[in-house]
Amino acid sequence: MSELEDIKQLLTEIRDNQQHSIAKQEEHIALTQQHLDRAKSQVEESIGLQREAIDKQRTITRIAIPGILACTLAIVYLVVRYF
To answer: Measured between alpha carbons, how far is residue 30 from residues 22, 24, 43 in Å?
Structure first.
């Protein structure tokens, strides 16, 4: 009978360890899910900021290019007129 009790005790320990391992795995899965959610939100924020930066760059380009051309033409006009 002692041998049967030892086997029963070992099986009980194995079961308990497996339950403990499953609980730890569930904790790790939950933590990983939190990290994934945070990463997704950071990527979405980054994409939004990049889109905003591109829009600002387009606006500046629309203003700067004509301004630079106007200044260049004015300089060329002054150089041709006075030299």
So the answer is: 12, 10, 20
CA distance 80 to 25: 79
The CA distance from 18 to 68, in Å, is 72
Helix locations, the chain, DSSP H? 2-82
What is the CB-side half-sphere exposure of residue 65 using CA atoms within 13 A?
A: 6
pLDDT band at residue 1 using 50, 70 and 90 as cut-offs: low
| pLDDT, mean of residues 78-83 | 92
Tokens of 13: 């320990």
End-to-end CA distance of the chain: 118
d(CA 19, CA 7): 18
pLDDT of residue 83: 83
